[in-house]
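Please, does this match?
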Amino acid sequence: MWTVMPSPIGDLRIVERDGAIVAIEFSPFQPPVDGRPLGERADDAPVLAEAVRQLTAYFDGGLTAFDLPLAPVGTDFQQRVWRQLSQIGYGETASYGEIAGRLGMTNAASRAVGLANGRNPIPIVVPCHRVIGANGTLTGYAGGLERKQQLLELEQDALF
């Protein structure tokens, strides 16, 4: 099942399978990466409706932590990286090297962390936008650097 919601960074498609969110996608929407059918649009499905409610509250500056059932599909390493992303607090950032260090790896693993970060299927909720370059610059983002900057600014504005 899936739904689409408007947001300040463009329409978002939210995909649910077996009672958990498996993807949040930026427009323009692409066919599913895993080749599985999306199923029917179900705007009133409870998990999807709750995801829309929480994302709306996030964009309004009133929600700093999500509480949704998530089931991102990825390798063991990707799952470990995504769990670390979820530990980066609202309005905070971390570098790829810092994430590697939190995983018990050297800074040399930054590129692998970056690749896993880029494959995060549930952006915003699993906050891959909070990962930046070691020198503080904005680096790649699946939704585009403009969206990444908008999300970081939204969080900073809400804090002050």
